[in-house]
Amino acid sequence: MTDLSKRALIRLAGAAGVVATAVLVGCGKKEEAPAPAPAPAPQAEAPKPEPLKAAWVYVGPVGDAGWTFAHDNGRKSVEREFGDKVVTTYVEKVPEGADAERVIRDLAQQGNKIIFATSFGFMEPMVKVAAEFPDVKFEHATGYKTAPNLRVYDAKFYEDAYMAGVIAGKMTKTNTLGFVASFPIPEVLRNINAYTLGAQSVNPKVKTRVVWVNTWFDPPKEADAAQSLINGGADVLLQNTDSSAVLQTAEKNGKFAFGWDSDMSAVAPKAHLASCIVDWGPYYIQSVRQVLDGSWQTGRTVWGVKEGQNALASIADFVPDDAKAKVAEVKDGMKAGTFEVFTGPIVDNTGKERLPAGQQADQDWKDKVDFYVKGVEGKVPSGS
User: Fold this and answer.
1) How many CA atoms are closer than 13 Å to the CA of 168, on its beta-carbon side?
2) Which residue would you say has higher pLDDT here, 35 or 178?
3) Helices vs strands, H then E, count in the chain
4) Are the C-beta atoms of residues 208 and 195 closer than 8 Å to each other?
5) Which whole number is the average pLDDT over 355-361?
6) Residue 43 — pLDDT band, cuts 50, 70, 90?
7) Where are the beta strands (DSSP E) in the chain?
């Protein structure tokens, strides 16, 4: 074979190899596209902040239809306002004194960041516990002692009592009113005096008799006190106690009375003239919001008719129109800030001037009331 032939054969073999390779490739599987890169994992949602824990300490049962019932309605307002941002709890029927200190401390240890104590007798225990928990906010109803993490809130119940007195002065036939009182402290004495002053504003002949029961909530004792006042000639009663016993006793005797702290018109409709009510909801909502946003500060807050916290509610249809008109006039003055219940001259029942003519009482004066105004019979018990 010549060299030319050999070279031709080699070229032929190479071409055949190329063709064979091309055939093999054409018969094989197509090359798959690379898998897409996995999507980045979604970022975990930031955990929700823990709800604020808020607690209430009640001196009576939540079903008392009065003081504690009104405070618990305020607590429920907080729940409705803030939803899952707040968790509330309460302890009811807490005696004033050592038990209150134990309960308040326990609530602080449970992680509550704001604690409301709703009775005057809780003041000293709360002052003590507040010093132990500087990162907790404490609030005391109707007291006067404060601290960097403790403040006081109150309501102008005497405004309600004055308006109730206007109606009582028009309704009484004996010119003798009755008042079932809890403890001889300024808070209660203001209400007795305001009730009497309101009645005297429409009926100067009115006098008021008082029976002290030395308890906030004891229905049988309240009923006995009411009966004693009725037996002594009182035909229109008011109370600074927490149950509806006074109103019910009045109805059993065919006399008149008022609800206290909440609307009691359904309890004894034949006796019910009106109810002196307080709505704690707006204040509690404000306080909790301040803790949530960091704006809470110590101090003292006293709201009344002007702020929508106090009112005389559910005035009976059978109350005379002139009495209703006078109440409306007084209420308008309170709202506008032009009417102050304790405006001089105010004289006590011994004849001593306690506030000069034309002078309006400031909060300091109100905090120190330790006397009966002219027209209230008897002496204030010692220890007030």
Assistant:
1) 38
2) 178
3) 11, 14
4) yes
5) 97
6) low
7) 52-57, 86-91, 114-117, 137-141, 150-155, 176-181, 207-212, 236-239, 256-261, 272-278, 300-303, 310-313, 346-347, 353-355
